[in-house]
Amino acid sequence: MKPIVVFSFLLIALSTKAASVDTLEIFSNSMHRKVKTVLVRPSGYNNGDKRYPVVYLLHGAFGSYSNWITKVPHIQQLADQYQLMIVCPDGGYTSWYWDSPIDSTYRFETFVGTEVPQYIDANYRTIADRKGRVITGLSMGGHGGFFLGFRHAETFSAIGSMSGALNSTVITQGYGVEKRLGDTAANRTYWRDWSALAAVEKYPKDSVAIIFDCGTEDGVLFMNRSMHEKLSKMKVPHEYTERPGKHDWKYWENAIDYQLLFFRKHFDKVLR
Fold first, then answer.
1. How far apart are alpha carbons 212 and 267 in whole angstroms?
2. What is the pLDDT, as a whole number, of residue 205?
3. For the segment 96-143, what is each residue's pLDDT rounded down to a tens digit?
4. Where is the signal peptide (predicted)?
5. Is residue 62 a contact partner of residue 32, using CB atoms and an 8 Å limit?
6. What is the C-alpha to C-alpha distance for residues 209 and 181, in angstroms, rounded to an integer?
7. Number of Cα atoms under 13 Å in the Cβ half of residue 77
8. Worst-scoring range by mean pLDDT, 55-64, 104-113, 182-191, 255-264?
9. Looking at 4-13, 77-86, 104-113, which range is the least confident one?
């Protein structure tokens, strides 16, 4: 596939930080439009030929590509500390990171799972191998981390979720699931199979490292416990943690520290 054309750079730049922060506009062939994506590169990127692993970090429902860098700016320090790149693609208002079967303008499985990694690998010094890519996110983005991570295990070697809404089947109104999947009867297969809780039943031939967590005061805690129970019954290795906290940025600002440490250890193991 030919590299996707980038149309704008450096819409966000915080010069006081060591890491560089750029906003890209990546053209999606599947959606026929440009989609914004934040890119964080560690200090030293411009001073050599070193290649870096990449963490794909997804936002939640009603959010956007800029959420992580504006709400949790210390991800720049984490990119420096762990010497990795962080990519935050826009996932639509309520895409759930699916290719909607009823709305062709929402093809975010293809965009985030295929087009963005292809563009980033073609234009930046990445470790262009599944061993050098991982994916995680918060809430809807946690669902995306599991859904895309399992369905695109040839692209990502580890997956994560923070406060993930991991059972979209029960979210029948208010969060856009019905707008992406359509009628629950006519499109029963999508409603059943495209929940992250169901997607993990098809364990990929390429094993994936898994980390997820949730706050003990979070309304989606039951979904995370269900995922932990299912993976345990399937005997799928994973790291699951519950910590005090709600479904808010205070929790995610803390959770990202643990996730990026896990991914750095993962990279150190698989990239030897």
1. 17
2. 85
3. 999 999 999 999 999 999 999 999 999 999 999 999 999 999 999 999
4. 1-18
5. no
6. 29
7. 7
8. 182-191
9. 4-13
Contact 200/237 with Cβ under 8 angstroms? no
Amino acid at site 141 = G
Q: Which pLDDT score is estimated for 39?
A: 98
Give the torsion sign (CA, 189, 31, 64, 264): positive
3-state secondary structure the chain: CCCCCECCCCCCCCCCCCCEEEEEEEEECCCCEEEEEEEEECCCCCCCCCCECEEEEECCCCCCCCHHHHHCCCHHHHHHHHCCEEEEECCCCCCCCCECCCCCCCEHHHHHHHHHHHHHHHHCCECCCHHHEEEEEECHHHHHHHHHHHHCCCCCCEEEEECCCCCHHHCCCCCCHHHHHCCCCCCHHHHHHCCHHHHCCCCCCCCCEEEEEEECCCCCHHHHHHHHHHHHHCCCCCEEEEECCCCCHHHHHHHHHHHHHHHHHHHHHHCC
Name residues whose C-beta falls within 8 Å of residue 208's C-beta, 6 or more positions apart in sequence.
Answer: 149, 150, 153, 156, 157, 158, 159
What share of the chain has pLDDT > 70, as a percent? Answer: 94
Number of residues that this document lists for the chain: 272
Q: Domain 20-270 adopts which CATH fold?
A: Rossmann fold (3.40.50)
Domain range summary for the chain, segments of one domain joined by +: 20-270
| Pairwise pLDDT comparison (18 vs 255), residue with the higher score | 255
